[in-house]
Design goal:
The protein is an alpha/beta fold. Helix content is 32%, strand content 25%. β10 (156-158), α6 (164-174) and β11 (180-184) form a beta-alpha-beta unit. The structure holds ligand EPZ. The site of ligand EPZ has 26 residues, from α1, α5, α6 and α12.
Amino acid sequence: MERYIVKGGAPLVGEVGISGAKNAALPILAASILTDETVTIDNLPDVRDVNVLIDAIAELGANITRTGRHTVKINCSNITSICADNEYIKRMRASYYLLGSLLGKYKRAEVSIPGGCNLGTRAIDQHIKGFKLLGAKVGIDYGKIIAGAEELVGRHIFFDMVSVGATINIMLAATLAKGTTIMENVAKEPHIVDVANMLNSMGANIKGAGTDVIRIKGVEKLHGTEYSVIPDQIEAGTFMCAAAVTKGDILVKNVIPKHLEAITAKLYEIGCSVEEYDDAVRVIGLGKLNGTQIKTLVYPGFPTDMQPQMTVTLATAKGTSTVIESIFDNRFKYADELTRMGANIKVEGGNIAVVEGVETLKGAEVNALDLRAGAALVLAGLGADGYTIVDDIHYIQRGYEDFPQKLTKLGGNIAVVQNDRDIKKFKFKTA
Ligand code: EPZ
């Protein structure tokens, strides 16, 4: 079983290039199903979830060629199946985007009930509500969501709660529906705008993505396109926190600073220096940081996917900090792992963490319990005294391209190890 071993203490210094956004790439790949013409997608992150979805779309009968590590050409004119339920699809949350695109184009879809990181209940009632309002019948049978419609007709949809997935899924299904769909109480994350921009580049008529109301005028058909995925806001934020945790100095390149504003503001507030450039931000971790209050919110608030990384940063900041998780009902499972490293963190009622800053964390053996918690534990190890071993790193490999390589290039001591012999070799090399 692959694990990361990390030796803490080295400040991370240098430049890092951010990859394409996983959470934009996944729906953009699914959107390629909506046309029979060829779609070229560039700046895809080479991460497990993206590669699994590419394989799943190929399994439906699509013709996919990888023309580079980060580029695919997809032609879905020969899709022969509307059923996606293989082993991997079951484990990935974003497989539900296949529902929106298959239903949108073929008026039928069968997709395994989505898996994904265990962050508490991850219902899909808003997705189902939207599909039904567009005219589809939706049922659950033998672990699959089955949706079908004679035709899809535009409707006025007011979501009961803001959902990134449901906003995107209904946008996918409504693009080829008859008439106009108005969606309210929608998510406004950068990846929502990216998906809408890509669909419009295929001839869709979508207005208002990134605002509270999205208007979609159904069109007859969509044509091919060439599209490049936006940079990953959360990967960028993770490296920004790495500079804070290790008291380093990192220029985070290939980013859209506007997407990082909530993260930049918080790092500045706790005492980091943050300089913004056109497509880069530079974060300098200046010594002892101050505690603060964090509340995760929908965009443009502080992103829930940065909550573990920020909590790790606050674990050695001065004073008492509180972190309120308002999006997911169980996203502090990693607190016990942090406690093993000497953090003083108490989770109240499942969604409030009270963090008393300690002098420093100590290396320990910990488990990556989900994608972002795993990345946060690596940051904790980089800032801790001694050696940390992070297990279950397959979670991290779902969403971070070349994570250990990028950290090593910044001066971090991290390696993938398979067994005790590898661990001994790493310790000897880094002693
Ligand atoms: C997307 O998940 C992201 N995943 C998540 O990133 C991210 O944390 C989340 O958006 C919020 O930004 C992908 O894009 C693949 P939601 P999603 O629908 O779509 C509840 C990562 O680390 N809800 O906005 O599942 C739900 O239970 C991952 O990259 C319903 O109740 O997020 C959750 O509590 C982790 N009913 C909250 O809303 C629904 O129908 C937010 O969910 C849908 C959601």
